[in-house]
Write a structure and sequence with these properties.
It contains four helices and no strands.
Length: 72
Amino acid sequence: MDSKKRRIDRELGDYIYKCFKQSGKTLERFAEELFVEVRTVNYYFTGQRKPSQRTLLRLIKVSNINVQNIPF
């Protein structure tokens, strides 16, 4: 069985966590507005999973992030 290791993207995970904290929402509410499970958001925070482009756009909207402040 060929097991592939996923690359962990800590920079993206840290950024998503920062967006969450800035939003002032509960984890449950944040996940609900992104249309994902709380467990999935936790994977995003650790960089173990990457959100889709659509989810990233929702993240910007939900967090009221200034597009100029996106680091990548």
